[in-house]
Design a protein that fits this description.
Oligomer: single chain
Radius of gyration: 21 Å
Number of strands: 16
Number of helices: 2
Structural class: mainly beta
Helix content: under 10%
Strand content: over 45%
């Protein structure tokens, strides 16, 4: 009887939904090299992306426009995917800045292999990535001296500027949550992101309604919402995105498929 009374006085454990900061039961921890990721999801294609800052899709000032193309190949016997992006940045009162970015990843695992870029400002970068090791050179705009890059990340990360590829490569289904590391040249180290697939939604993309998967991207350490992506399983894969800027404004991205090599 005394044991029964003790058990009755112990409050029941809170559910996962009642415990702040805990993730849904259907959670995937996706590391670079994980078999849960399949780059075979993506086929060669090209897309045009437009970026605006404003209240709604199609509103606001055009801040950038670029084309991106996926090219498949091989390197040292391994299949690789090479994303080539050519764009123009617009800012009030200054001439447009043109740039080109090339990102190479393992075609099966999405493991980063190389990043290179150059722009009309004179800025340039060439990096090779082997697991957690990043080496290469970097040069700021103008006549800045070339700097050597040699760093070891805490954890290998997927390419930060293509983080929306990870949920697609891991498989989209309503309710699934994915935790994945990402890294880019602007980051001192890799960091974890949480991708939550909320379900299907219809979004207007340059005047046309498109049904897509709605995915939220949050920072792992504080659960802050960073971006919302609308993804489809064919070209151009990411059709719409909203990125929360540090000043509270929203950067909106639209993407439409174009012929390979087109602009």
């Amino acid at each position: 009887m005394r044991l029964l009374l003790v058990l009755l006085l112990i409050p029941p454990a809170p559910s996962a939904a009642e415990r702040p900061g805990l993730l849904a039961p259907d959670t995937l921890r996706v590391e670079v090299g994980s078999p849960a990721v399949s780059g075979r999801t993506f086929i060669p294609h090209a897309a045009r992306v437009r970026v605006r800052i404003g209240d709604g899709e199609g509103d606001g000032r055009l801040t950038a426009e670029w084309t991106k193309e996926l090219i498949l190949g091989d390197s040292a016997g391994r299949p690789v995917m090479r994303w080539v992006t050519r764009g123009t940045q617009f800012a009030p009162g200054t001439p447009p800045v043109t740039w080109e970015l090339s990102q190479t990843s393992d075609a099966e695992t999405l493991a980063p292999r190389a990043i290179s870029s150059h722009s009309s400002t004179g800025a340039a970068m060439r990096l090779t990535i082997e697991g957690r090791r990043v080496r290469g050179t970097r040069q700021a705009a103008g006549r800045a001296p070339v700097q050597r890059v040699d760093l070891t990340l805490t954890q290998a990360g997927f390419i930060a500027t293509a983080s929306d590829l990870v949920p697609l490569a891991a498989g989209l289904r309503e309710g699934v949550v994915m935790i994945a590391p990402r890294w880019g040249p602007s980051l001192p180290d890799s960091e974890l992101r949480i991708f939550s697939v909320l379900g299907r939604a219809t979004i207007a993309v340059e005047g046309a309604p498109i049904e897509a998967w709605k995915v939220e991207e949050r920072r792992h350490r504080d659960r802050a919402l960073l971006a919302t992506w609308y993804l489809i399983t064919e070209s151009p894969y990411m059709v719409y995105g909203e990125i929360l800027l540090p000043d509270g404004r929203i950067q909106r991205m639209t993407a439409v498929a174009i012929p390979p090599g087109g602009r």
